[in-house]
Design goal:
The chain is α/β, with parallel strands linked by helices. It has one domain: Aldolase class I (TIM Barrel, Alpha-Beta Barrel). The protein contains 10 helices and 12 strands. The two termini are 13 Å apart.
């Protein structure tokens, strides 16, 4: 969708927007299902990047210490527990600028991925920037999806990060899709952006070809010590509107209600599911942030008559993205 179309949609009355989003959702996702994903930080803290929202940056005093890469057995223990609790996707994040082939840490991550892939779960990783060869190695090791959020609009992005560019993000997404992995790509609300930045972010995402397989909609959880520690909270109705707009703009994507759910009431989350959210991070921790408990989530899903999605088995074939530069014009 283009920006004009998104602006027109965003101006619709709240319930009319939700009705349209619900109709799109039911046309493409007729089953009352929610994807349950578990996220584990396999390497925490000490990141060289300066993302102004992140407690793991070594540039800020946040109380998050730099840790070594978790052992393979520790990761597998967490993955098995996630599967036992009902998760179908296991996501692993490492606080790095990126990875390079031939390094010990990348080889260690590839070994971990091979182990997790044997558990019959979808395997997602977020390791920062990727080159073409690194992307292919991840795919060969068993990665089914790669998370690399664009965070906000290209215009607002330099206000949030200076150690890499928006185009760097797009280049990684290209390498991911070229290697045949699914793209998990969304953004964060509450970074000091304007309403137009949120729509611009959705325009970029909806013009990726193909659309992202999943689109996380995160709400900033301000971290003490970061430049955005005193950021204003995001209204839950604005979150629900973004979910609805994402559902309409990307009908076949899983729209993930992600970070920030601890600040949303059960009723607000129910509205988000009605508007088109069909994926959540499941488990009591998201990298360094809190998340609702497993018991609380299961109780809410039961009240809403929602059931867990089964993992996908068909990995998207290798594909090239359309010219990403066109999305920026």
């Amino acid at each position: 969708m283009n920006l004009t179309e998104l602006e027109s949609l965003s101006q619709r009355p709240f319930f009319e927007l939700l009705q349209q989003a619900r109709a799109v959702h039911e046309a493409h996702w007729p089953k009352q299902e929610v994807q349950l994903c578990t996220l584990l930080s396999i390497k925490t803290g000490g990141c060289s990047e300066d993302c102004s929202y992140c407690a793991q940056s070594a540039r800020y005093s946040t109380g998050v210490d730099a840790e070594r890469l978790l052992s393979k057995e520790a990761v597998l223990t967490n993955a098995r527990a996630a599967k036992a609790n009902g998760s179908t996707r296991f996501c692993m994040g490492a606080a790095w600028k990126g990875v390079r082939k031939g390094t010990k840490r990348f080889d260690d991550v590839l070994d971990i991925i091979r182990g997790v892939s044997e558990l019959d779960m979808e395997v997602c990783v977020t390791l920062g920037e990727l080159g073409a060869e690194e992307a292919q190695q991840l795919r060969d090791a068993g990665v089914t999806a790669y998370n690399h959020n664009i965070d906000t609009s290209p215009e607002h992005y330099p206000n949030i990060v200076s150690t890499h560019t928006f185009d760097d993000r797009l280049n990684t997404l290209k390498h991911v899709q070229d290697a045949g992995m699914a793209v998990c790509c969304g953004g964060i609300l509450g970074l000091g952006e304007q309403a137009g930045d949120r729509l611009r972010m959705l325009e970029i995402l909806s013009n990726l070809s193909p659309h992202p397989e999943s689109v996380p909609i995160n709400v900033l959880m301000p971290m003490p010590g970061t430049p955005l520690a005193d950021a204003d909270p995001v209204d839950s109705f604005d979150v629900v509107r973004m979910i609805a707009l994402a559902r309409i703009a990307m009908p076949r994507a899983k729209v993930r209600l992600s970070a920030g759910r601890t600040e949303m009431s059960k009723e607000a989350q129910a509205l988000a599911f009605f508007a088109g959210a069909n994926s959540i991070f499941y488990g009591e921790k998201l990298l360094t942030a809190e998340n609702p408990s497993v018991q609380r989530d299961l109780a809410l899903l039961e009240k809403l008559d929602l059931t867990p999605q089964a993992p996908f088995t068909d990995v998207p074939p290798p594909c090239r993205q359309a010219e990403l530069a066109e999305a920026l014009t």
